[in-house]
Amino acid sequence: MAAVGGRAAGGKAEAEAEARLRAVLGSRRNANTALDMVQGLEADQEADVLAAIRTCSQLFCTLLQQGELFVGQLPGEEEALSADYSAEKKYKIWMRHRYSNCIEQLLNLMTHASDQVQEAALCTLMKFVQTEGKWPLVKYEEDTHYVFPWELFRSLVEQLLQVESDSSSLLARFEEYLEYEDVRYYTMASAAENIPRVIQTAKGVFLPVYHQNVFTLLSSIHMPAEESELKNFLVKQKGKHDEWKAAKLKEHRRIFERLWLVFLKHKLSTNLYKKVLVIFHESILPHMSKPILMIDFLTAAYEIGGAISLLALNGLFYLIHHHNLEYPDFYRKLYSLLDPSVLHVKYRARFFHLFDLFLSSSHLPAYLVAAFSKRLSRLTLTAPPQALLMVIPLICNLIRRHPSCKALVHRPGETQDLAADPYIMDEEDPTKCRAMESSLWELQTLQKHYHPDVANAAATINKALSNQEADISVLLDLSISVLFEKEPKKRAKFAPLEFEPAEGLLSRKGDLVTHHWALE
What we know:
This protein is mostly helical. The protein folds into three domains: about 1-140, no CATH class; about 140-265, no CATH class; about 330-495. It contains 22 helices and no strands. Helix 9 runs parallel beside helix 11 (about 250-265), helix 10 packs parallel to helix 12 and helix 14 (about 305-325) packs parallel to helix 16 (about 350-360).
């Protein structure tokens, strides 16, 4: 019964709102009814608020199209009523103030308790942006071919970036509007203004919710690759877009770069730091006009250590590979990241994918490759099976690429005593670790590993390595659960038994019975 009553109440609210709409649009004598329509946005019941949003949307979009709202610098309401204006002008000024009141209420409703009300308010405001762009309320020069309701849109973006409340659901709804070129451009411009203002107002207080909202918005921006892709605009312009910044890829990249620089210059949480670095090399750097400006951020991230350093590798390598960045300590830093924890972290697969990529060049010096091979080999002594099945083929690939390092494998009589091994595990400089004087005896040790797959993988070095490298991409995401699932599916060719297999009829070979009867 409650549901039926709710629908009835909602239907009544809808009918009343529609009646008010018809009255206002039917005659200017009913203009005061617009006050009731706007006040309906403050109703307590969700159904009443939604009905008010729908009718306000229809009302003011219609008035904008009909030219019923005052155009230009809006005078004060009291001032206009007492001034020597015509009745028509006073009407348009008064109705323009109702439009401003409606916008203010809709902006407030973007933080309403109901997600449905929030989305309805957002969509209505975006409808106003589109309609006001076609029938602007600001006077432009006659030769101006492009308009965009900047003030209205900037207020909308500011409401999306809440300081204390999570806006993720509303931002997810807003993401579909970012497919429009002009919306994307002005969103970036608005956010670039909003971030420093909010941070400065906070006076050093950390704002985790705000930073998360900003990141959610920024990560939703998908930049076009070519200027020819800039075809879809929310606000249709009258003329060509030759002078409109929103229609130029160069301007998109410029404001995109400025936005990320503004955001990343402020303190971020460790979790957010990681989220940024995960998308940095694919979604951020390629779309900047001057990616090299990010070197300070990436270098600082690389110096932090742990998972953040691992994730910063992608961005640094992109700058080295695509923009000729000189980073002389790159391989030394990479070498220092090889500690026991790297085989257990969440981003292990990503790290070793990059690691393999960084060491793919055949022009690297032999001592450097030997240092990495030896350090990985030493780490295998305490690594879990799923990591070993990835690392051992990786070491073998390094040896294949650099035949001069085969001495590490073929060094007979090499001691397996840690104390006698010339390799210096604690040395952070790969040029001083003496890896070329050592051997990969750790792989020989792993040939006695309890897991048969690990033992078989380690036994590869006993044979001459083929020129064909092993594909480690299929091994990067191996987990212990995957290994457990594979074991029951294996068919054993030989099972060790606790008794001596019978070779004669009475259990012993060569007994008298066997002399006369042979077992077939």
